C-alpha cells in the first residue's frame, strides 16, 4: 500500500509527511534484503541513470524526440497493440484518463451511459466520482463484496447497461482473478445483455500464469483493454488503451480534449519500453515465487504462535497479495520498520492499515529482489517480525 489513499486500498493510511512514513521509506532504501524494490523508491539521480543505461537497448536515441504523440510514442503504441492482439493503441499519461475516455466512447457507441462494475474497482474507490462528474456516465455496482462478480449478477442486473468493466486483477479485494471459465462466462453474460466489455488491466501483464493463456488471448475476450506501465513494469508513469482502430481514433480525440496530448513524453515512453523488455518476461517468475513466499508466510505465522493470520488469496493469483494480522496497524507498522532498521531485512515494505476491529492488512509484492529469498528465509523473518510485534505492543 502506498502512503496516500489514491493508490491504496481505499482505507485511510498515514499522510506521506508523517515520521512513520518517512522512516519506512528510509528503511526501504537501507534494506539489504527486501521482497520488492520498485524503481519509485529510488532517487531522481538513480532513476535517470538507470533509464540512460537501458534506453539504447530499446530505441534508437539518435531519432528525433516525439512531439504531440508521434515518433517513439507511436512505436510504443504499435508494440502494445501487437502484444495484446488489438488493432490499435493510444498512449495516455494516466490510466484514470484512459479508462474514462474508453468508457465515454463506448457509451456514445452503445447509446447507454450505464457502466456495470465492481464496487471495489478503481473508478469507484480512487477517482473522486470522475465517471459521473467528468464523463457523464452512471456506474452501477454488480457487488461491493471483497470477491469477484459472478455471471449471474451480470445477467440479473435489474437495468440495462452499455458496458461491463472488469478489473483484472481486482486489486483492493486482494489482487483477485477469476478462473478462465469464470471470465469467459462473465463476458458471455455481458454479450447476452448486448453490452460491450472493457478490461481494467492495470496489472493484466502478470495474469498469464493464473489463466495459463497468453496476453493476446486474455485481451481478446474484451472489446477494449487498459494497461499500466508504472505498476508491474516499473515505468515512470503512463498507460495504454487498446481496441478497434475506430475506437482508438476517437479515444485520441478525447485524449486531446481531456488535456492528455502532451508536447513531449519520451522519458516516460522510454521507461515503458524498458519495462516491456526487462520486466514483462520476468513476471511469471515473480508470480511463481510469490506463491512460495505466501506459503512460507502462512507456515511462519503458525509456527510463531500468532492466534490468527491470513494470506489472501491463499495461493496468490499474481505476484502481489494481502496479509491480514490481528494487531493494530500502528503496532505492525512499527514492528516492520524496526525490523528493517535493526536487521536490514524488511519483510513488509508497505504500510499497514486497519482492516476491521482488531485487524490490519498490508500488501506484499514479489519482484526480482524477492527471488533471492528461500522459504526458510521467509519463515525466519516472520519469527523475528512477530517478536518485534510483541515488543511494539508492550510500548
Automatic annotation (TrEMBL):
Source organism per UniProt: Streptomyces graminofaciens
Cofactor names: pyridoxal 5'-phosphate
Protein name as it appears in the record: Aromatic amino acid beta-eliminating lyase/threonine aldolase domain-containing protein
Residues annotated as domain Aromatic amino acid beta-eliminating lyase/threonine aldolase: 69-298
Disordered: region residues: 1-26
This protein's UniProt keywords: Pyridoxal phosphate
Alphabetical list of Pfam families matching this protein: Beta_elim_lyase (PF01212)
InterPro entries on file: ArAA_b-elim_lyase/Thr_aldolase (IPR001597), PyrdxlP-dep_Trfase (IPR015424), PyrdxlP-dep_Trfase_major (IPR015421), PyrdxlP-dep_Trfase_small (IPR015422)
Residues in the signal sequence: none
Top-level lineage group: Bacteria
Similarity comment text for this entry: Belongs to the threonine aldolase family.
